[in-house]
Fold these 2 entries.
Entry 1:
Amino acid sequence: MTQLARLLIAQIDADGPMTLADYMSACLMHPTHGYYATRDPLGAAGDFTTAPEISQMFGELIGLCLAQTWLDQGAPAAFALAELGPGRGTLMADILRATRAVPGFHAAAEVHLVETSAALRAVQAKTLDGHTPRWHAGVETLPDLPLFAVANEFFDALPIRQAQRSGDSWRERMVTRDGERLTLALSAPTLLPMLAHRLEDTGEGDIVEFSPAATRITTDLGAHIAARGGATLIVDYGDWRSLGDTFQALRAHAQADPFGAPGEADLTAHVDFEALALAVAPARYTRLTAQGVFLERLGIAQRAQKLAEALSGEARVAHVAAHRRLTHPSEMGTLFKVMALYPEGAAPPPGLLA
Ligand code: SAH
């Protein structure tokens, strides 16, 4: 049993079963035993990898997309260039490198990072040495400036709750103990007002997921962008409207039991983009677009070709494989989606449609 499992069992004995969100949040962010708080899961011996770690092309195209959006909005003289959940800082480093040639962009940009993990903040500080990033624990403290931001594989790490349809109400899937093991049990039926609209498309026994944290963060971003200008690109796995149990644990690149070793595995759930879209007003949201399509519209084929010219042998093979991995429908191309928030009256970011 992990130390965190012992703490959670004691808490359940004292207070009763906890929501999946409270469980997930403890597993990922507990200050001393949390998965992200204590390690760099993206490092060489890490549990998973992400698009910016697969190829520099991902961050370069995101950077050019944000720079064009900044130009389209009149190139504001001071703005926050922000990332939510920056991991190792690789994506932001690629954004900064690719936008060096955009006149005025770097002079106007202040780099802001929303990151709760102390271990990852240290890695980001190293990667972004020279760019003087400022860190935030949440989006509420981002500066009062136009905000051009990206969140890649951030929303999937935010705590979710799960509810199972029971008549016209819901039984919440709660974390409880079974002897020395943690497991799920259903609550008594309750009315969950935030799921009222899901009574239309679900049947008895269906499971739906919802993330109060994701909704709150998106509402804050929408308000910020509507008031100050800017845009946020959200890239993640998921789809329009959640249905079914997508809660999963990943350890050493393999599926694991999410209750097996709390604090030792990455826990995620698919992102419900509809729930995010419903939270952005008064800002607008773009159509949900497959990552492969988005990157192709931004010119990944040309960029890949150009980079390939300078490569040979194994490096070239790896580069071709990375391009395929980011865009192909059987890899990350369709599972991953992109949606942007942007202000009323502005053009949507390149690669995305209103
Ligand atoms: N965007 C990076 C890393 C994705 S991993 C990449 O694409 O490689 C998820 C990141 O989100 C980590 O940096 C993690 O520490 C951070 N994170 C998770 N939950 C968070 C929260 N509630 N607030 C701020 N950061 C969070």
Entry 2:
Amino acid sequence: MSDRVRDAPVTLKIILIGNSGVGKSSFMNRYVYHRFTNMYRATIGSDLLSKTVHVDGKTVTLQIWDTAGTERFQSLGTPLYRGAHCCMLVFDVTSKASFSALDAWRKEFLIQGEPRDPTDFPFIVLGNKTDSSDREVSRGKALQWCEEINAEYFEGSAKEDLGVEKPFTRAARCGLQQYKKHTLENTGHFQITCKQPRETRNTCEC
Ligand code: GDP
């Protein structure tokens, strides 16, 4: 692999999915802009935020995608999910239903997003609203499911700015591994196929 390929700027697509109202928009806005409001849809309405971070000695730009209210129209998932490097499954710890729904969200992502290696695709499960007193989903229960699906678990509160940084740092790290495995793998293959004509014919038309 050439240094030029290895040092190319890296953009990682991180996607947040889960039921409407669990706090996806709030969580990503807290992470990127360090702020919280009860009225994101009305004030910002953004479905994509970017943040540049340093991971394992590399500078990467995270493109963080939220479904921005399209949860009701699941067919819109296809273009949104494709090319993701990491998927965050978000639920609200005060809502059992939002936790139960994650299994369907994960399956939907695997079908629509068509990740190259579904058995190895990184999922991060995120329980939001831990500041609320009426909790319905325990940490133990969430961890148990994460073990079943081989995902990592984080929880926190966008409102109180608790545990917001860690899941994104982890997503960046997992995403970078995916990127190296698939994107750079492809570039490497391209170079190998070019090598033959260059050696034999002294010219390369690619
Ligand atoms: P989305 O539909 O999943 O993007 O959810 P939003 O980010 O729009 O949030 C839905 C509602 O939950 C809003 O009223 C937010 O103010 C509220 N909310 C988001 N995060 C938290 C949190 O950490 N704690 C509490 N108590 N409420 C939150």
